[in-house]
């Protein structure tokens, strides 16, 4: 399911896995690898295009960590723009405009997954004002 999400697709509700295979998973709490764990495999016919949320009242929709997940351009929330300008969050804070960091992927470093951020997401009504002020 997570792999499809990173490709901009979601598994349809109530779909059963096309195939179940054994795989290895890492348990962070116990700090060990667990073998022979079942992994559900879904086909593309069992998925739908990701329907991004809509920005309302000047607020950018975020995930539980306060970011916007932009693994593909189709995942950009409706009524928002992705601005790849460094330090844009300070400009938005000064203007009182809501912005969220854009999470575009993960990088492997030292046996850990490190999030990769590329720019910020703001509501489209504030996009021109923010770029002018920047």
Structure write-up:
Strand 2 (19-27) and strand 3 (32-41) form a beta hairpin. The protein is globular and about 55 Å long. It is of the alpha+beta class and 134 residues long. The strands form 3 sheets. The protein has a 4-stranded mixed sheet. The chain has a two-stranded antiparallel sheet with strand order 1-4. It has 2 domains: 2-47, no CATH class; 52-133, Rad4, beta-hairpin domain BHD3 (Alpha-Beta Plaits, 2-Layer Sandwich), CATH 3.30.70. The protein has helices at residues 2-6, 88-95, 124-133; strands spanning 9-11, 19-27, 32-41, 47-49, 68-69, 80-83, 99-109, 112-123.
String of helices and strands: HEEEEEEHEEH
Query: What strand order characterises the main sheet?
Result: 5-7-8-6
Unreliable segments of 5+ consecutive residues: none
- What is the correct CATH architecture of the largest domain? 2-Layer Sandwich
Task: Give the N-terminus to C-terminus distance in angstroms.
Answer: 38 Å
Shape: globular
CATH names the topology of the largest domain as Alpha-Beta Plaits
Instruction: Please identify which CATH superfamily of the largest domain we are dealing with.
Output: Rad4, beta-hairpin domain BHD3
Whole-angstrom Rg: 18 Å
């Amino acid at each position: 399911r997570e792999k499809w999400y990173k490709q901009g697709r979601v598994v349809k509700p109530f779909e059963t896995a096309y195939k179940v295979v054994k795989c290895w998973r890492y348990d962070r709490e116990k700090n060990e690898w667990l073998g022979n764990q079942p992994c559900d495999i879904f086909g593309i016919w069992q998925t739908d295009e990701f329907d991004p949320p809509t920005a309302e009242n000047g607020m950018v929709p975020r995930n539980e960590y306060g970011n916007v997940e932009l693994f593909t351009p189709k995942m950009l929330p409706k009524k928002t723009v992705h601005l790849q300008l460094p330090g844009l969050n300070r400009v938005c804070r000064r203007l009182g405009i809501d912005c969220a960091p854009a999470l575009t992927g993960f990088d492997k470093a030292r046996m850990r997954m490190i999030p990769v951020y590329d720019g910020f997401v703001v509501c489209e009504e504030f996009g021109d004002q923010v770029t002018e002020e920047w």
